[in-house]
Amino acid sequence: MKYSLHIPKHFLCLFLIAACLGQRSYRYDLFTKAPELLDIYVSEEDKSYSLVMEFSAANFDYVTNETFAPPSVNLLLKNVKWNKGNFTKKTDQNPLYQYSVSIPRNDNQKEIKERITVKMDFTRVPEYKIKLVPAKSKTKKHKLKVTWEKTKTKKSKNKYLASNKRLPPTRISLNFQEAKLVNVIRMLVSQDNLNLIMGEDVQGRVTVALDDVSLETALDAILHVNSYEWFMQDNIIVV
């Protein structure tokens, strides 16, 4: 005896439609597009600065590493697209003096897809926090923030400190390896005929790689790395 199973046509149609929708949903989840880095900028709060990166979605990873000669923080973003090309931007959010975005390349000098390197160059690496802020309400932008506190001015030196305008608007570019610290400082101040006083305890060597930064930023970078402070009184730079 033979048995046959009769399935109504409308049930069969519904089953096929559901199967197709499920397959499309599976393909969508499997091949979700990489999010795009939409913008990058520096924001300021009362007591802190932040480097803000805005993304179209949050399904990305990042790896952080630091270097200390010269001082910098590097973020390697994975599964992220960037369509605006490599660039570097100068800033005055001390101790950050510039940041850059670039697409890394492999051994054959071909761009690595969906990889981005964000580099932050400091006069000294501050204590910082990294936080992912999910999109809220109508704004569909997810934000990754690197935040650090503003440099605090020591009260004991307030009577000596001068405004930035008292330093010449000179831009500095230097590239030295293991140079004597005192020689580098003398060379910096001699370009604008500034007076200089240094104590006998100022010593050591420094490796410098600065490109088009202000005189103040250069002094901060070179002296702070060696744990020295400086201030300006009248037309005299005191280290």
Automatic annotation (TrEMBL):
<dbReference type="InterPro" id="IPR011662">
    <property type="entry name" value="Secretin/TonB_short_N"/>
</dbReference>
<keyword id="KW-0998">Cell outer membrane</keyword>
<dbReference type="Pfam" id="PF07660">
    <property type="entry name" value="STN"/>
</dbReference>
<feature type="domain" description="Secretin/TonB short N-terminal">
    <location>
        <begin position="195"/>
        <end position="239"/>
    </location>
</feature>
<dbReference type="GO" id="GO:0019867">
    <property type="term" value="C:outer membrane"/>
</dbReference>
<protein>
    <recommendedName>
        <fullName>Secretin/TonB short N-terminal domain-containing protein</fullName>
    </recommendedName>
</protein>
<keyword id="KW-0813">Transport</keyword>
<keyword id="KW-0472">Membrane</keyword>
